[in-house]
Amino acid sequence: MIKTILTLAGSDPTGGAGIQADLKTMTAAGVYGAAVITCITVQNSRGVTRVEPLHPVLVGEQIEAVLADHQVTHIKIGMVGTGGIGRVIARKLRDFAGEMIFDPVLLSTTGQQLMAPQDLDSVRADLLPITTVLTPNLPELEKLTGMSANNQDAINAAVTSLFQASNG
Predict the structure, then answer these.
(1) Which of 1, 18, 40, 118 would be a feasible disulfide site paired with 12, CB 3.0-4.6 Å?
(2) CA distances (Å), origin 61, targets 43, 51, 142
(3) DSSP 54
């Protein structure tokens, strides 16, 4: 079995983000990377014009295939896409013993929303409790918490609310 980092994310055809960027980073760092695609995007440097989430069952089958064939030590979750995909990810990875890094990709660089607001409940309820490292940017922190993150006190309060949500 090969020691592997598994990334779960959307596919960016330009290679600037998502699965493609994660795999390039892993290769540059000298580690083996495997990938589970959650969504296909149509995008370029000017923006995202379409997002097509994969069926949650297909995402789950990809996870099972990689975990059955590789010694996964770390998992990085990026773009989830839908609440259904989030629930499948959480169910398939519930017993994973390694590091679970969640970089919630909720907005494109150009500001397009990449997950429906009603699906954020799944992220909070299903994925935060299994996350060991959480790395939202400020706009994503605001989306996840519904709180402002416009100064250090507000950021601290939002982060605290996320910790409470994931532990409670």
Answers:
(1) 18
(2) 26, 20, 32
(3) P
